[in-house]
Amino acid sequence: MLEGMAGNQAAYQGFLRAVAPHLRAFLRRRMGRWPDEVEDLVQEALLAIHHQRHTYDVSAPLTSWVYAITRYKLIDWLRRHARQDAFNVPLDEEHELFAPSDMEAAEARRELDNALALLSEQQRSAIMHTKLDGWSVRETAAALSISEASVKVAVHRGLKALAGKLRNLR
């Protein structure tokens, strides 16, 4: 990794090839129910490692840094997977599966989506990623290709705009 950061492309490719089997084993142990998804997640983790290599602190253990990135990718995948599964409930079983509180939560989510639709795309995305999906400001900034300060401003202004619009609806 260090040689790769210094510009040695062959060493860097060797590092990625060497770390891939470790990531595969790490993810297989945690994704036993979804073995077909492991390889895709390995590739996502390797890509994230590549994109975030500039954040590696050489005084810290490399394995901790690599596994932290991989763990975040796994968490993101599990969140996406949980959201997708929520939409795959057979309609004939809906009333048996959802208690009234679940119905209220779904209605609240629809209302939230409608309220967020009133915002600009940047404000909506910044709020969704940081406040709803649990992403860090840094992750959100990278995903939206804006600065961290811009993410903070977008969240602040978006929440302020939402509060004003919701007050006017009363």
Topology:
Blueprint: H1 2-5, H2 9-30, H3 38-51, H4 62-86, H5 94-97, H6 100-116, H7 121-132, H8 137-144, H9 148-169
Helix pairs in contact: 2-3, 3-4, 7-8, 7-9, 8-9
Describe the protein in words.
The protein contains nine helices and no strands. It has two domains: 1-88, Rna Polymerase Sigma Factor, Chain: A (Orthogonal Bundle); 98-170, Orthogonal Bundle (Arc Repressor Mutant, subunit A), CATH 1.10.10. The mean pLDDT is 84. Helices cover 75% and strands 0% of the residues. It has helices spanning 2-5, 9-30, 38-51, 62-86, 94-97, 100-116, 121-132, 137-144, 148-169. The longest helix has 25 residues, at 62-86. α3 (38-51) packs across α4 (62-86). It is flat. With 170 residues, it is an all-alpha fold.
Listing every helix as H and every strand as E from the N terminus to the C terminus, the arrangement reads HHHHHHHHH
* Helical content class: over 70%
As for the number of domains, it is: 2
Question: Count of DSSP helices?
Answer: 9
CATH class of the largest domain: Mainly Alpha
Overall pLDDT: 84
Spatial separation of the terminal alpha carbons: 57 Å
Tell the overall outline: flat
Family: Belongs to the sigma-70 factor family. ECF subfamily.
Domain RNA polymerase sigma-70 region: 17-83
GO molecular function: DNA binding; sigma factor activity
Domain RNA polymerase sigma factor 70 region 4 type: 109-162
